[in-house]
Amino acid sequence: MKQVQLRPTERIDDLLTYDLKIIQSDEVFSFSLDAVLLGRFCSVAPKGRMIDLCTGNGVVPLLLTTRTRAEIWGVEIQERLADMAVRNAEINGLEERLHMLQGDLKTIHETLGHGQFDVVTVNPPYLPVPNGEQNANEHFAAARHEIYCNLEDVIAASAKLVKAGGKVAMVHRATRIIDICCLMRQYRLEPKRIRYVHARAGEEAMMVLIEGMKDGKPEIRTLPPLIVYDDNQEYCKELKEIYYGGRSSLEFS
């Protein structure tokens, strides 16, 4: 592990897979199960170019390096998090493959170009901006609420960046699935794979993983549900495999 300078309140955590490390802080929103699932669900380009929008501290690009030799970009609008993403690439010795940028996803195509990426991944903020009082912590507020971008901004940006035949993968709240599918089709991203995530068997879905293809033909595969916790309130076998680096049914070539 390379040595990098840590800011006050920052720590280095273990990502539990492939000896990867990650800088985190309680002052900013830490990565969650959503990002881990996205990093294993999305299609990958064996070489090529991939990009992760709303990358935060760069956790999804880090996880993707365990599945592909592609060059990977990460885009984050918040300066504090973008800086953490840069240093997370450095401490893992991945700075030549991971390119972490501070920027606005709505305009990043002006810098990186149209149709330049084989795969786009994104774990966007889930909630509309609330009326009245918001979270006093700007980093938490931006991670949870559509302050810097809304769902249509995310899908429109993804459509500009991905090449024809390329893939766009997203994790979001299951309740937004109709909005997601409608907007994907509006921007020529045909939904091709979908998987619902349930906290426990018998409960309604809390999250959805979905992947579309730029200019793809209409046809979608609905994958088996992913159950997070077993009867003993522990991560199910598949989740343990995901966290510790084993191959799971989340992955499809």
From TrEMBL:
Spans traversing the lipid bilayer: none
Keywords in alphabetical order: Methyltransferase, Transferase
Transit peptide in keyword set: no
Pfam families found in the cross-reference section: MTS (PF05175)
Record-annotated Methyltransferase small domain positions: 36-131
InterPro entries: SAM-dependent_MTases_sf (IPR029063), Small_mtfrase_dom (IPR007848), tRNA_Adenine-N(6)_MTase (IPR050210)
Protein name, UniProt field: Methyltransferase
GO molecular function: methyltransferase activity
Record keyword Translocase present: no
Gene Ontology BP terms: methylation
